[in-house]
Amino acid sequence: xxxxxPQEQGQEHDPPAGPAFEEVVRFTSDLIRIDTTNxxxxxxxxxxxxxxxxxxxxxxxxxxxxxxxxxxxxxxVARIEGTDPSADALLVHGHLDVVPAEPAxxxxxxxSGEVRDGVVWGRGAVDMKNMDAMVxxxxxxxxxxxxxxxxxxxxxxxxxxxASAEDGAGFLADRHAGLFEGCTEGISESGAYTxxxxxxxxxxxxxxxxxxxxxxxxxxxxxxxxxxxxNRENAVSRIAAAVARIGEHQWPVRLTPTVRAxxxxxxxxxxxEQPDLDGPDFDIEGLLGKLGPAAALVEATIRNSANxxxxxxxxxxxxxxxxxxxxxxxRIVPGGEDEFIATLDxxxxxxxxxxxxxxxxxxxxxxxxxxxxxLRAALERFDPDAHxxxxxxxxxxxxxxxxxxxxxxxxxxxxxxxxxxxxxxxFHGVDERVPVxxxxxGVRVLDHYLxxx
Length: 453
Description:
This protein is an alpha+beta fold. It is 30% helix and 23% strand. A hairpin with a 5-residue loop joins strand 1 and strand 2. It starts with 18 loop residues before the first helix and ends with a helix. The protein has a 6-stranded mixed beta sheet, with helices on both faces.
């Protein structure tokens, strides 16, 4: 029988320091230096990063499995056995791929992993090789200290999150579900970072929902002909009109439970009289205007959206093409799919067809659950000034794919950030970077939460 953990003995464990702090910085830098740029269309190779992770997991006494649907698009999965076999398992996942970066636009080369002035620079520093490194540092620290969590923890380092996830979390959920047996909840990116909403108001938004992904392809059929002739069946005109209608459409407000909880808590923090969210006179724009910077946490998730992003038509200026296409980045609030489909049918109009190019479900996670309470407590333990609030992500993560297995996902990548550090702007942005102190904070929070989960 294994020795009891500090929790089983009723003792408070010491937070990690020393080697774990050194390793999390080194791991973040090393992973950034491994260029895993995902340009879409299968143009990416995560295997070198996956092998790096697997090597260090094996060094912590685990037995990582490397899995590929497509050669070079590698995922890593490992399980840490808990002390309570009857407890549900917890999934901790992070992706290894990153979006492209143009070195000429950056202050520091995006794949240098340079540590300068207490900050780690490079593509993936916040999305999301920082979390990959923090989890790796915690696991190795546990191995050194002989710590085991209460519940099984499944670690998944995935490919292809920055595209379709077909070679990553989608492949794992569809083809290797057995590796996630017993997992009921999961944590991953895009939450639990410091959001400075004003003086002495450090918010820590925990992801408790995601809008659904609805990438669309529109196709307009017309009559090809000479550019000098009258043409009432011009495919370009039809697609342009449809795109204009979609881009100008004002979607109605649809407040989900997660967004309602966020608005309620943010109003209280700003000393605003509690709004009647269902009242006939409720003014969402007025409330957002009173929330100041904190409005950014909810304003993109109060309704569906559809943004035109690509147009394709023609091959010569004096030739009217018979076909024109457009692409739309649509996002759907939980429960808003029927409205989205009906609205697109109306907005596209005659002569224009549309289809889902890529579609993933919207998600919600309860904010009154024991899991959410433990996530909140872990942040408050290491930042007593923290104001933890739930929020719904405007985009999506691999939690969508893992939800197929019944796993409820939370966005939880803990980072304590200084005022003026615009974390959200660095996602897919230029000069992506993360403070070393923030990585140390994240290691401590994750260590505490994963032991107490």
